[in-house]
Task: structure prediction
Amino acid sequence: MLSTTLMTHDNWDGPGPWWPLIPLFWIAFIVLLFAIFGRFGRRRWHHGSYSGESRLAERYAAGEIDEEEYRERLAVLREAGPKGPGR
Result:
């Protein structure tokens, strides 16, 4: 008796024509999160541990430049200070 009552009073016509908007919303939300956190993560990485002095020290350690050139370039970097986009 209960099953026939439920079957006769069922007026649900399905999810409707708007159902694709829900997955599209979540996809857009996830892409937005990746874009925001990716931008801040890259900015922190470039400003933090991989500055010009770090790259210069790596080149010196690898033997690409000698001590004199290292000291000259280091003095120029420290004299100029942090400049560039976003600084």
About this structure: Residues 35 and 41 are 10 Å apart (CA to CA). Residues 50-87 form one domain. The mean pLDDT is 78. The longest helix spans residues 21-47.
